[in-house]
Specification:
- The chain is of the alpha+beta class.
- Helix content is 18%, strand content 42%.
- Strand 10 and strand 11 form a beta hairpin.
- It is elongated and about 75 Å long.
- The N and C termini lie far apart (63 Å).
């Protein structure tokens, strides 16, 4: 019982330390005018924990990161698992952890449909997406200048492709919508009028790269991975920001 209590106390202290390390990692490259993300739910897996300390390798640390600034749509959350963290016991005992190497990171990146649509509304064609069948399929609609008809509503279904760490909305089965109830030949096909749209999701924490995308009723889930990540020193001053000007001038 004493061993278990000591183990849990050590876990709690280590989770606080890891939260600081992770906060330093996700804020070190942010510009001064960017609100830093929120780090929460830091949890260390594996028992007994004291054995992990002795060998200087932690099996699995879970963490949630919210409020991530990107050049594209708002990211609602990143649920990550950091696996294989290496901290020599001497550094733990002397409270001089410094940088922390991490073998692998696996994460789920969530984007809500509303946030994706806010981004798409500013893109050519004012494309919007809507889940059907609980998100098993996603409809896409937009406007295009159709020869002989002018501006028309067109739509179809879409998939989300991931290639080389880039997410792309790819429409298919595109057809004329709205009041038209007949077919009309369009040079190049209607599908040419609803192009693919790149969706930027750069700037993810832990140097994550997206590798797969899926959809459900509320949004997109992106699978992301990273290898050989280094968490910076927790006490490092990661952002050198000038003091706020409160003079009112």
């Amino acid at each position: 019982m004493v061993l278990v209590a000591g183990d849990r106390f050590a876990v709690s202290a280590a989770e606080d330390q890891m939260a600081k390390q992770i906060e330093a990692s996700v804020t070190e490259s942010l510009a001064c005018d960017v609100i830093p993300p929120t780090v929460s739910n830091v949890s260390i897996g594996g028992f007994p924990f004291l054995t992990q300390i002795m060998f200087g390798t932690f099996k699995n640390i879970g963490v949630s990161v919210e409020g991530i600034s990107t050049p594209g749509p708002r990211i609602s959350s990143v649920e990550a698992h950091l696996k294989g963290l290496h901290i020599p016991v001497k550094k733990i005992l002397t409270n001089s952890v410094g940088e922390v190497p991490v073998d692998d990171v696996e994460a789920t990146v969530r984007l809500d449909y509303d946030d994706v649509n806010t981004f798409l509304a500013d893109q050519p064609g004012k494309i919007q997406i809507n889940p059907v069948d609980g998100g098993e399929q996603v409809e896409v609609s937009g406007t295009a200048d159709v020869p002989m008809l002018g501006a028309q509503e067109i739509g179809g279904v879409t998939t989300f492709e991931v290639r080389d760490n880039e997410l792309t909305l790819v429409p298919s089965e595109v057809s004329l919508r709205g009041g038209l109830n007949f077919s009309i030949p369009v040079p190049g096909g209607v599908g040419e009028l609803l192009p693919s749209v790149p969706i930027p999701v750069g700037g993810l924490p832990f140097d994550l790269s997206i590798v797969e995308a899926s959809t459900d009723a509320s949004g997109l889930s992106l699978t992301a991975t990273a290898k050989d990540v280094v968490l910076p020193e927790a006490e490092a001053r990661t952002r050198q920001c000038p003091p706020a000007d409160n003079s009112g001038n």
